[in-house]
Write a structure and sequence with these properties.
Layout: H1 3-13, E1 15-19, H2 27-36, E2 41-45, H3 51-61, H4 64-67, E3 71-75, H5 80-89, E4 93-95, H6 101-110, E5 113-115, E6 117-118, H7 121-130, E7 135-137, H8 145-152, E8 160-162, H9 171-176, E9 182-184, H10 191-195, H11 199-213
Helix pairs in contact: 2-11, 5-6
């Protein structure tokens, strides 16, 4: 998929569901529940050594990724080498908690959407000018939803995705203040629901987020 197609798919659901778990043995079932709830973007973080294996397994198992109905990416990608490994495993977008210019260059070279993390205006503009597809505003909880409005008033061209502390109480306000999407981790991909394999509850939680942001 082209970068613009990936971004358009993410913006349909307006959420990147961040799968940051110690156990990824249920990766396919987790992904099925999230997609059934209307989520259109999944991110498997490299904090788990099995993340790329899980990403490849999910992408192969679920037809939504081949049909362009959803996209799958890798998160916590800290350098160009990790970006390359993620792309080779099938990642359609790359997310990082910080801005690494080698990672951005690697993704640009391969035509892959990249979302580096930044927080201050200087960091955010530097990431954008280096070629970020979207800038991940992280940790968003540091300043809250109003910060996005402040950023976009002088910088309306920026595509921003707040992540960190996003929940049902504030997600819609981030979108209203100009976010193209929000990144949601444990507040959506609930470890207790996964441990109990309550896929219906996970689907319902995903659907609640999607309805809220429509």
């Amino acid at each position: 998929m082209q970068i613009e197609q990936v971004l358009e798919t993410i913006e349909v659901g307006r959420i990147v569901a961040i799968v940051r778990l110690d156990d990824l043995s249920q990766a396919v079932a987790i992904s099925q529940a999230l997609l059934a709830g209307g989520i259109t973007a999944l991110e498997f973080t490299l904090t788990n050594p099995a993340a790329l294996q899980a990403l490849a397994q999910v992408k192969a198992a679920l037809p939504e990724f081949e049909l362009g109905q959803a996209v799958i990416g890798a998160g916590t990608v800290l350098n160009a080498e990790a970006a390359l490994s993620s792309i080779e495993a099938g990642a359609q977008f790359i997310v990082a908690p910080s801005t690494n210019f080698g990672t951005i260059a690697q993704c640009k070279q391969r035509g892959i959407a990249v979302m580096p993390g930044a927080l201050t205006p200087t960091e955010i503009v530097a990431a954008w000018e280096a070629g970020a597809s979207v800038v991940k505003v992280f940790p968003a909880r540091a300043f809250g939803p109003a910060y996005l409005k402040d950023l976009r008033e002088p910088l309306p061209h920026l595509k921003l995705m707040p992540t960190g502390g996003v929940n049902l109480e504030n997600a819609a306000e981030y979108i209203q203040n100009g976010a193209v999407a929000v990144g949601v981790g444990g507040n959506l991909v609930d470890k207790k629901l996964v441990a109990s394999q309550d896929w219906e509850a996970l689907r319902n939680k995903a659907a609640t987020y999607v309805r809220l942001l429509k």
